[in-house]
Amino acid sequence: MSEMSFETDWKIALSSILEHLIDSQFAKLLLYLDKIPQGVKDGKAREEIPDLIVQKYGTEKSISEIDKIMKKIPRKDAKVQKLLRPFVEKLKKRQKEKGTTSECASTSGSGARKRKPAAGTTSKLAADSGLPKKQKTAVGPSEAIPAEDSVPAEEKLLKVRTEFVKRVSDANLNQLLDKLLEHGFINDEEMQSVRTKVKAEKARNLIDLVREKGPEASSLLIDTLCELDQCVSKVLKLI
């Protein structure tokens, strides 16, 4: 998706989100948009606000800002979240890709400096392996590319279920529950039912419950786990 298309789609979704707000919630939204001067907000029709928000905050920043404001108002219900969550998830994916690219570039550069071979060593290794120098060094990066980007989130969770139960800490399980409740994918009763279990049973109940909730809930769990514990996420091949 091009940047222009992404921005256009976001403005359309944002307009729909604002239409779902009652007057008092809309007033709170304007109050929280402190980057926009009050004089600019005054007198603006509701349909003019999306363009103003994107203009002042930028596309990506405005998505994060609206996500925060919807939690404060609060509007965590399905009507609003169904419109908002796809853009929040796309934004997280973009940021993760940017971070991974920077990290890999940094690691590659520092590794090259630390492991600079003595003169003739690289040629000898290439000769011993029977491969040209460039062909040999190209293997590493290609192996680092995830092979299952197109796999649905629920299937990813099913594939890693056993290792998830074994490796995810109790503290992180509780944080995952909090995040799912915060975004309206589970209710208080479901959260308490899972939270009271011992660690292994808690992990099994959590991952099965989230898979039943569908792709958005599954994606949120995966993204949150990647933020909480990159080491475990890499072992599970979620990163």
Key attributes of the depicted protein:
75% helix; Death Domain, Fas; 16 helices; mainly alpha; single chain; 0% strand; 239 residues
Kindly summarize this structure in a few lines:
The protein has helices at residues 3-19, 23-32, 38-41, 49-57, 59-72, 78-114, 121-129, 133-137, 139-143, 153-159, 161-167, 170-182, 188-195, 199-213, 215-228, 230-235.
SSE topology sketch:
Elements: H1 3-19, H2 23-32, H3 38-41, H4 49-57, H5 59-72, H6 78-114, H7 121-129, H8 133-137, H9 139-143, H10 153-159, H11 161-167, H12 170-182, H13 188-195, H14 199-213, H15 215-228, H16 230-235
Helix pairs in contact: 1-4, 1-6, 4-5, 5-6, 6-15, 10-14, 11-14, 12-13, 12-15, 14-15
Provide structural commentary:
The chain has 239 residues and is mainly α. It has 2 domains: 3-86, Death Domain, Fas (Orthogonal Bundle), CATH 1.10.533; 148-239, Death Domain, Fas (Orthogonal Bundle). It has 16 helices and no strands. The chain has helices at residues 3-19, 23-32, 38-41, 49-57, 59-72, 78-114, 121-129, 133-137, 139-143, 153-159, 161-167, 170-182, 188-195, 199-213, 215-228, 230-235. The protein is elongated. The chain starts with a helix and ends with a helix. Residues 153-230 form the CARD domain. One of its GO terms (biological process) is regulation of apoptotic process.
Tally of separate helices:
16
Which percent bin holds the helix content?
over 70%
What structural class do you assign from the helix and strand content? mainly alpha
Order of helices and strands: HHHHHHHHHHHHHHHH
Mean pLDDT across every amino acid position: 82
**Percent strand:** under 5%
Question: What would CATH call the homologous superfamily of the largest domain?
Answer: Death Domain, Fas
Kindly provide the radius of gyration, computed on alpha-carbon positions and rounded to a whole number of angstroms: 23 Å
CATH topology of the largest domain: Death Domain, Fas
Shape verdict: elongated
Weakly predicted, low-confidence segments: 121-126, 131-148
Based on the structure given, which CATH architecture of the largest domain is correct? Orthogonal Bundle
* Main beta sheet strand tally, sense and closure: none
Say how many strands there are.
0
The tally of structural domains comes to: 2
CATH class of the largest domain: Mainly Alpha
Terminal CA distance reads 21 Å
